[in-house]
Amino acid sequence: MSYTKVAENENMITYVDIDSIKRTGNLVKLKEIVDFKKSYFNKDGVEYRSHLIEQTINCLTREQKLDFITIYTGPMLQGSILEKGIAPDSKRIIPETSLSYQTFKFVCSK
């Protein structure tokens, strides 16, 4: 895996796995790390620090669909896997003010 930093704000940094980018027409499949700058906690109170998100982005409509998410207890996919699975109701139009918009611009320019 070859990760490139794509976006950052006060809460997180996002990285895209360049090797995972697969484009078919307007659809781009990719893997993205979301690395949180501080700890967050799940509904059971267990700390987590990063996510690996497998997703599909439509470069024409700006729609994002999360295909699979793996949540890690440590930063940059370190520590143990806390949860993993398919995200229900995970489609959305990417807001221009979000870090996901930077990912959209990055992968759709490839």
Task: Using brief descriptors, characterize the structure shown.
110 residues; mainly beta; Lipocalin; eight-stranded antiparallel sheet; 1 helix; 55% strand
Can you walk me through this structure?
By secondary structure, the protein is mainly beta. It has one domain: Lipocalin, CATH 2.40.128.710. Helices cover 9% and strands 55% of the residues. Strands 1, 2, 3, 4, 5, 6, 7 and 8 form an eight-stranded antiparallel beta sheet that branches. Strand 5 and strand 6 form a beta hairpin. The model has no long low-confidence stretch (mean pLDDT 95).
| Named CATH architecture | Beta Barrel
CATH superfamily: Surface-adhesin protein E
Please report which band the strand proportion falls in: under 5%, 5-15%, 15-25%, 25-35%, 35-45% or over 45%. Answer: over 45%
Radius of gyration (CA) equals: 14 Å
Helix and strand element order: EEEEEEEEH
Through-space gap between termini: 17 Å
How many domain modules?
Answer: 1
Question: From the helix content, strand content and strand pairing, which structural class follows?
Answer: mainly beta
- Count helical runs: 1
Q: Give unreliable regions as ranges.
A: none
Tell how many strands the DSSP assignment holds. Answer: 8
CATH topology: Lipocalin
Largest sheet: 8 strands, antiparallel
CATH class: Mainly Beta
- Report helical residue fraction: under 10%
Which descriptor suits the 3D outline? Answer: globular
Average pLDDT level? 95
